[in-house]
Amino acid sequence: MVHNFAAKNGSALSGLAAVGATLATAAAVVVGAVLAVFAAATVAVIAVMTSALLAFAGLALRARRLRARRAADNGLIEAKHLGGHHWVAYGWNERP
């Protein structure tokens, strides 16, 4: 009988259902917003880590080039072994 009474005079239950639906929708929006912010923060952290990695790689390559340049300035020349007693030297006729 309660069900029939609510069906006839459903204003109390329909109002309660509307409030519940509104609260559920608001909760879903808040949870979605929090997850979106978390995903954006994750992408930002990955971008910062990637840029730091590229910066360190660039510094390493620069240091390697500088070390190679310093090694080349000490008067040594490069030579390539072609086999047997044959060698080819590079850089012996270049002036610094």
Question: What's the topology here?
Answer:
Layout (H helix, E strand, L loop, with lengths): L1 H7 L2 H62 L5 E6 L2 E5 L6
Structure notes:
With 96 residues, this protein is mainly alpha-helical. The chain has one domain. It has two helices and two strands; from the N terminus they run ααββ. The chain has helices spanning 2-8, 11-72; strands at 78-83, 86-90. A two-stranded antiparallel sheet has the order 1-2. The radius of gyration is 37 Å and the shape is rod-shaped. The model has no long low-confidence stretch (mean pLDDT 82).
Biggest sheet architecture: 2 strands, antiparallel
Q: What is the helix tally?
A: 2
Q: What global shape is seen? A: rod-shaped
- Show unreliable segments: none
Please give the radius of gyration in angstroms: 37 Å
Percent helix, as a range, is: over 70%
The topology string of helices and strands comes to HHEE
As a percent range, the share of strand residues is 5-15%
Distance N to C terminus: 105 Å
Q: How is the largest sheet built, in terms of strand order?
A: 1-2
**Structural domain count:** 1
Number of strands: 2
Structural class: mainly alpha
Average of pLDDT:
82
